[in-house]
Amino acid sequence: MTDPTEQFFTELVAHGRHPLLQTTTGTIRFDVTGTGRTEHWHARIDKGHVQVTRGDDTADCVVRVERALFDGIVTGHVNTMAATLRGQVEVEGELHLIVMLQRLFPGRPTPQPAHTGSRRQPR
Predict the structure, then answer these.
(1) What pLDDT digit, counting tens, does each position of 13-45 carry?
(2) Smallest Cα–Cα separation from 63: which of 36, 104, 94, 108?
(3) What is the SS3 assignment for 115?
(4) Burial state string for 23-61 with b = 16 or more CB within 10 A and e = fewer than 16
(5) Gap between the Cα atoms of 82 and 87, Å rounded
(6) What is 4-104's CATH number?
(7) Domain map of the chain by residue range?
(8) Residue 17's closest CA among 50, 41, 52, 51?
């Protein structure tokens, strides 16, 4: 089973330059909590180029979120702004950075039709 959070950050870096962030510069630290520990992901954005490391370095914006919820965000099942407005995501510092990075979170997945196993017979 793959780890959605780790996969998101790996793909974020692997993608290279992100045109949607071409005017953005700053740092965001994600404090992802769960199972009695906190993981720290540090993203540095420099005009579309993104570098990600693990660590609790200081950042312009700090996002605190539970692991299960963040997995939902990075897989497109949870809307970041809605979760923030509900108080499920805590953001400190320069809010515009998370608003910009949110553009790279996937959209809601397309529902797949249920397969019933039977086919309709032609008349």
Answers:
(1) 998 899 989 999 999 999 999 989 999 999 999
(2) 94
(3) coil
(4) ebebbbbbbbeeeeeebebbbbbeeeebebeeeeeebbb
(5) 9
(6) 3.30.1050.10
(7) 4-104
(8) 50
Question: What are the tokens at 52?
Answer: 């990600």
* Amino acid identity at 90: E
pTM strictly above 0.90: no
**Residues paired with 55 in a beta bridge:** none
- pLDDT digits over 86-114, tens only? 999 999 999 999 889 888 888 766 566 66
Residues 46, 98: Cα–Cα separation, whole Å:
14
108-111: long-range pairs with CB below 8 Å, 24+: 108/76, 108/77, 108/79, 109/75, 109/76, 109/77
Whether the CB-CB separation of 85 and 52 falls below 8 Å is answered with no
